[in-house]
Amino acid sequence: MRKLHILKLALITILSITLVATFSFVGCAQAEEAVEEVEEATEEAVEEVEEAAEEVEEEVEEAAEEVEEEAAEEPITIGFSVWTMEFTFFQNVEKGVRDACEDLGYEYIMIDQNADPTKMVQDLDSLVSQGVDAISVTPVDPGALGPAVQNARDAGIPVVCADIGKSGPVNALIISDNFEGGQLAAGYLDELLADNPDNTYKFGLGNLQPQWTYARERGEGFIDKSEELGYEIASEIIVDPPSAEGGYDTMQQIISAAPDIVGAFFSSGREAVGAAQAVEGAGEDIYVVGYNGDPEELQAIEDGILAGTILQQPYVIGYQSVEILKEILEEGAEYEDEVVPAPVKLVTPENLEEIAAELEERRGQPAY
Fold first, then answer.
1. Cβ atoms within 10 A of the Cβ of 366, count?
2. Dihedral sign (CA 310, 216, 295, 323)
3. Cα within 13 Å of Cα(321), Cβ side
4. Which residues share a beta bridge with 362?
5. pLDDT digits (tens, 9 = 90+) for 104-155
6. What's the Cα-to-Cα distance from 177 to each of 83, 131, 263, 312, 347, rounded to whole Å?
7. CA gap 183, 225 in Å, rounded
8. Residue/partner pairs of 142-145 with CB below 8 Å, 24 or more apart
9. Mean of per-residue pLDDT scores for the chain
């Protein structure tokens, strides 16, 4: 519009100069006729310029509408790479991602890493090749993730890790408040032992593999709170393999190394159930608390085998990963290497029914 105004001024100026020149070389009668001709020519020229400007504005508006329509016709696509769909925890992360995509009107592509670090990297590169707009990933091996994340970011694709850990230039990691979870476990064991005259103030700890840096914060929180409450970690062993069988064997080793412990914390669900079964099999009076809130744990709590567990909220983690990607893609939010904590809950025999009902409503299936 500014250019149009300048053009009008220039046109009027030229015509005015022409008018002055006309007065200089012709008589009054002829000059009056010339003035009328100039005025008519000016009006015609201004009308033509205004009509041309209106046409240009209409073309610009039409082009903008076409761009908006094209953008609307190409929905955002989220790619999700999951550790494995074998376990309930990751099934719930995946459901959270899928539901968020459905609620936001996004297209959704899911690839199962099958617990294979090499396939994890290949899967992320495949999602980049498929042209997804953003990626959510639950990495089986966070340390191997870096190059694939860099490849995605170089292609302009934001990456959010939904639990486990991160490496490379991820935009964000959403992960359970594991340190707080470990502290909750220690505090609950202390409550259970408050009136026990035989309390030896000794605990056992079934810890996780070193590469799971963030998950190992569960053990750190447990140790921190235990020591604050006056307890000694009499035996700490890494559960290997990370399974119910591994938990069973590890608990037997802990009992052998420290037979006078009165409680134990196992940092993952299946391992905790195995540990509790080992305690029951040995006829020992040891409280065991787990971590995850897996169906097996909830069932073991109902059966009176497991004292309690720390419930992660994998569905929330998955859903929130897509919400953050939406903020980045649609709102221009800036996330760079941020860690977003997800809340955890203590599950005991007293609140098991309530927690199970909440989980069933959210997941659309029985909690256990």
1. 11
2. positive
3. 36
4. none
5. 999 999 999 999 999 999 999 999 999 999 999 999 999 999 999 999 999 9
6. 20, 33, 22, 9, 15
7. 5
8. 142/166, 142/167, 142/211, 142/212, 142/213, 142/214, 143/167, 143/211, 144/117, 144/120, 145/120, 145/121, 145/170
9. 88
Q: Distance between terminal CA atoms of the chain?
A: 67
Q: Minimal CA–CA distance to 93: which of 128, 140, 130, 129?
A: 140
Q: Provide the residue type at 83 as one letter.
A: W
Question: 31: Cβ–Cβ under 8 A, 6 or more apart, which residues?
Answer: 22, 23
Tokens 């190409």 -> residue: 74
What Å distances lie between residue 202 and 176, 183, 232, 240, 261, CA to CA? 27, 16, 5, 23, 5
**Residue bearing tokens 């996004």:** 106
Measure the CA dihedral 207/208/211/217, to 10°.
Answer: -60
Of the candidates 239, 214, 238, 236, the one whose C-alpha atom is nearest the C-alpha of residue 226 is 236
The answer to whether the bond into 147 is cis (omega within 30° of 0) is: no
Distance between CA 132 and CA 323 in Å, rounded?
Answer: 16
Q: What is the pLDDT of residues 158-193, one digit of tens each?
A: 999 999 999 999 999 999 999 999 999 999 999 999
49 has a pLDDT exceeding 60: no
For the chain, where are the alpha helices, taking DSSP H only? Answer: 2-25, 28-73, 88-104, 117-129, 146-154, 178-192, 217-228, 244-257, 269-282, 295-302, 314-331, 352-363
| Nearest Cα residue to 291 out of 220, 190, 192 | 220
- Pairwise CA distance, residues 236 & 258, whole Å: 10
Find the angle CA(194)-CA(200)-CA(206) to the nearest 5 degrees.
95
